[in-house]
Amino acid sequence: MPQYLPYYVAFLAFAALYWVLMSRRRQSLLQGTSSMRAGEVATQLGMALVKGDPSFHLFADATPSMGAAGALLSGTPFPYQGPASEILARGTLDGRATELHFYAKASAGVRIGGVIGREIEVERKCRLTIAARAPVPDFELVLREPQAGAEAERVHTSLPAMRFGDARLDQRYQLFGASPEIARRLAPAMGVLDDQTYVHVVGEGERVSMPFTLGAIYLLAGAPQTFLRKLDVVARAFEENR
């Protein structure tokens, strides 16, 4: 008998039981949050789904599956990759292009020593974007003291920190950018973000976007129109002449 055969048999039995239990829990979640499916979210955003499965659940399916490769190879020492999940929806708001893009894929490295330990890498992106009718300088806005689990994953890490010059705004937000014009433009629009427990706004080119972490995707999927309206207010701050 191969040395590791009992280990593999026990592991597969445990994996089968775990799969059954999680499948039941997943079905309950899906039934209660059907509005979080990609097709429904796109409709709420006034967008058309141009890529991906409309039944894809933006929260329940946000953690990528290892697919058939994972089922066959998870108990072995061999590396494997799961299938990529991608959702792309596009539309317009007051004549300006809008977009929702989600992408996720997981891969597993070689099992250390052939028995325990394996490095799992997950690539995940989720971003809601609106085009502005004017150039938008590069900037990034996050909460200064986010709640645990609501931390943003910075995009423009090379941008210097800057201040609004308003005590309330500087206490709540961290702003990064190179032009003093950014703070002046954004300040009047910040009220629209005051009720959010997760804040991450990025400006670049002629686009303003909100990237979402795994924990924040639930917030987006639960109220997509709310986030798009807030993003619209921020984008308009760079369009107005003042």
Q: What do these coordinates show?
A:
The protein contains 7 helices and 10 strands. By secondary structure, it is α+β, with helices and mostly antiparallel strands. The protein has one domain. Strands 1, 2, 3, 4, 5, 6, 7, 8, 9 and 10 form a 10-stranded antiparallel sheet that branches. The chain is globular, with a radius of gyration of 21 Å.
Total domains, how many?
1
Derived structural class:
alpha+beta
Mean pLDDT rating: 82
Care to count the β-strands?
10
Shape: globular
Distance between the termini: 79 Å
Low-confidence sequence ranges: 4-22, 68-73
Number of helices: 7
Range of helix content: 25-40%
Order of helices and strands: HHEHEEEEEEHEHEEHH
- Major sheet, described briefly? 10 strands, antiparallel
What percentage of the residues does DSSP assign to strands (E)?
A: 25-35%
Radius of gyration: 21 Å
Short précis:
This protein is α+β, with helices and mostly antiparallel strands and 242 residues long. It has helices at 5-32, 38-44, 67-73, 167-172, 180-186, 214-222, 224-236; strands spanning 47-51, 80-81, 85-93, 96-108, 120-131, 139-143, 161-162, 173-177, 200-204, 207-211. The protein has one domain (33-236).
List the helices and strands and how they pair.
Elements: H1 5-32, H2 38-44, E1 47-51, H3 67-73, E2 80-81, E3 85-93, E4 96-108, E5 120-131, E6 139-143, E7 161-162, H4 167-172, E8 173-177, H5 180-186, E9 200-204, E10 207-211, H6 214-222, H7 224-236
Antiparallel strand pairs: 1-3, 2-4, 3-4, 4-5, 5-10, 6-8, 6-9, 7-8, 9-10
